[in-house]
Specification:
Layout: E1 2-9, H1 13-22, E2 28-31, E3 48-49, H2 56-70, E4 81-83, E5 86-90, H3 95-108, E6 113-116, H4 120-123, E7 136-140, E8 144-146, H5 148-161, E9 165-167, E10 174-178, E11 181-185, E12 190-198, H6 204-211, E13 219-228, E14 241-244, E15 250-253, E16 259-262, E17 267-268, H7 278-291, E18 299-309, E19 316-319, E20 326-330, H8 340-352, H9 358-362, H10 367-370, H11 373-376
Parallel strand pairs: 1-2, 1-12, 2-9, 5-14, 12-20
Antiparallel strand pairs: 3-8, 4-8, 5-7, 6-7, 10-11, 11-12, 13-16, 13-17, 13-18, 14-15, 15-16, 19-20
The structure holds flavin-adenine dinucleotide.
Length: 377
C-alpha cells in the first residue's frame, strides 16, 4: 500500500491539469485505466476555444483559460494553442440567436464583429448565402485552436517535475474509507490518501458509486467528427472554426489540409469507448453539403467521444457533501479543454483550502457556483 496526499482518478485533461497544480503542494498520483492519457474524451475533441458554447460560468472559465492559452510556449515545447478565428453563421430566422451570441462574445472578446450576408463568402468562400443559405455571421478573431496532446504532455511534465506520478493501465476497481484515508485499489497496487479527486469523465458517477458516494446524475452524450479533404484547389488553411448558431454543424481546418466537421450530435450513451455510427457519419457529410457548395467525395477518418454533463450543464468542482475528502472534478461537457486551466485553479484552491485565485475573483467566479451541493438542493 502506497500512502500519499492526493489520488486523482482519471488521466484526461481535467485530472492532469489539476494534478500539475496540486502536486506542488503534496505527493500526488494520477491513476489512469487506459494505456495512455487522453484516450477518451480529451483525445477525441475538436479542440477549440470559443464563446459559442455553455452558460455564463463556462464563458468566464473560458476567458480565464484563454489567457493561459495566449501565453508564449514553455521553452522549446509546442504551444498549447494557436490563434484561429471563430465564425458563427445564422439563417434569416436565427437573427435573435446571433444577436444574443454577439452580446456574450463581445463581453469577453471585444474585437468580435457581425458580418453581413454579402461578406460571408469573403471569410468562407464555399458557404451558401441568401435565400438558400446563411444571412449573417459573427466573426471573433480572438479564438484559439487548442492542441490537446501538447496540453496533456505539458501537465504530465509539470506533474513529474513536482514529484508526482501518473500510472497508466491502472483501473480503479474498489474505493473505501478507512479512518482518515481513502483506500483505492488497482490490480497492480493499492493507494491510500486523505484526498481523492474524481476526474473520471464519463465514469465519474461510476467512481462515486464504487466509493459509496451519492452520484451527481451525470449524462454522457456522444458526439461524432469526420475528417475529409476539401475539393482540389481549395485551400482551407486560413478558414476559421465555422459553426451554425442554431442546430446544424461545425467545421474547422486541421493542420494536415483536411477539414473536420461534426453534426453536433448529442445521443445519450452509457460511459464507454464511444464509436461513430453510419447514420451520424452520413448526417455530418450531409450537413456540410447542405450548407456549402463543397461535395464530400470521401471521409478519411471518423471518431466519436463522450461529452459528459451535470444536470444543470455547468461544470462541477468541490468536495462531496456526503463524503469527507472525496472531491468532484466532473461535468466538463463540451467545454472541458477550453475551461481546463480555470477549472484546475479552482480545484486546487478548493481541495487544499487556499486563497481563492485572483483570476477567478476578477471574473466573479465563486466556489459555490462550482460546488456539487447546487445539484442536490
Ligand atoms: C467530439 C468531441 C468534441 C469536443 N470538442 C471540444 C472542444 O472543441 N473544446 C472543448 O473545450 N471541449 C471539447 N470537447 C469536450 C472535451 O473533450 C471534454 O470536456 C474533456 O475532454 C473532458 O475531460 P475529462 O478529463 O473530464 O474526461 P476524459 O478525457 O474522458 O478523462 C477521464 C479519464 O478517466 C479515466 N477513467 C475512467 N474510469 C476510470 C477508472 N475506474 N480507473 C482509472 N481511470 C478511469 C478514463 O480512462 C479517462 O481517460 C469535445 C468532446 C468531444 C467528444
Amino acid at each position: 500500500m502506497r500512502t500519499l496526499d492526493t489520488i486523482i482518478i482519471g488521466g484526461g485533461i481535467a485530472g492532469l491539469y489539476a494534478a500539475a497544480r496540486i502536486a506542488r503542494r503534496g505527493e500526488t498520483v494520477v491513476l489512469e485505466r487506459e494505456s495512455a492519457p487522453g484516450y477518451h474524451s480529451s483525445g477525441r475533441s475538436a479542440t477549440f476555444c470559443h464563446f459559442g458554447i455553455g452558460d455564463g460560468l463556462v464563458h468566464k472559465l473560458t476567458a480565464i483559460s484563454k489567457a493561459v492559452f495566449a501565453a508564449p510556449p514553455d521553452g522549446d515545447h509546442p504551444p498549447l494553442a494557436r490563434r484561429m478565428a471563430a465564425f458563427f453563421i445564422a439563417r434569416a430566422d436565427e437573427r435573435e440567436q446571433l444577436d444574443r451570441l454577439t452580446e456574450t462574445t463581445l463581453a469577453h472578446s471585444p474585437d468580435a464583429r457581425q458580418i453581413a450576408q454579402d461578406e460571408l463568402r469573403e471569410i468562407v468562400p464555399v458557404l451558401k448565402a441568401g435565400d438558400e443559405g446563411f444571412a449573417a455571421g459573427l466573426y471573433d478573431p480572438d479564438a484559439y485552436k487548442l492542441d490537446s496532446d501538447a496540453m496533456l504532455q505539458a501537465n504530465i511534465r509539470a506533474l513529474r517535475a513536482a514529484g508526482g506520478a501518473m500510472v497508466t493501465n491502472a483501473p480503479v476497481e474498489a474505493i473505501r474509507r478507512e479512518g482518515e484515508h481513502w483506500i483505492v485499489d488497482t490490480p497492480g497496487e493499492s493507494y491510500a490518501a486523505r484526498h481523492v479527486v474524481n476526474a473520471a469523465g464519463a465514469w465519474a458517477d461510476t467512481i462515486a458509486e464504487l466509493a459509496g458516494v451519492r452520484p451527481l446524475g451525470l449524462t454522457p452524450l456522444k458526439r461524432t467528427i469526420i475528417a475529409f479533404r476539401p475539393p482540389e484547389g481549395i485551400d482551407v488553411s486560413g478558414w476559421p472554426f465555422t459553426k451554425t448558431v442554431g442546430e446544424g454543424f461545425y467545421m474547422l481546418p486541421e493542420g494536415s489540409g483536411q477539414l473536420l466537421a461534426s453534426p453536433m450530435d448529442e445521443d445519450t450513451s452509457p460511459p464507454c469507448d464511444a464509436q461513430p455510427d453510419e447514420e451520424t457519419i452520413a448526417l455530418a457529410a450531409w450537413q456540410v453539403e447542405q450548407a456549402t457548395t463543397m461535395p464530400i467525395r470521401r471521409i478519411d477518418h471518423k471518431w466519436s467521444g463522450l461529452r459528459t454533463f451535470a444536470p444543470d450543464k455547468s461544470p462541477v468542482a468541490g468536495y462531496a457533501p456526503d463524503a469527507p475528502g472525496f472531491f468532484w472534478l466532473a461535468g466538463q461537457g463540451g467545454f472541458g479543454l477550453q475551461t481546463s486551466p480555470g477549472m484546475a485553479m479552482a480545484a486546487e484552491a478548493m481541495l487544499l483550502g487556499l486563497d481563492w485565485p485572483e483570476a477567478l475573483t476578477a471574473m466573479d467566479v465563486r466556489p459555490e457556483m462550482l460546488r456539487p451541493e447546487r445539484l442536490f438542493a
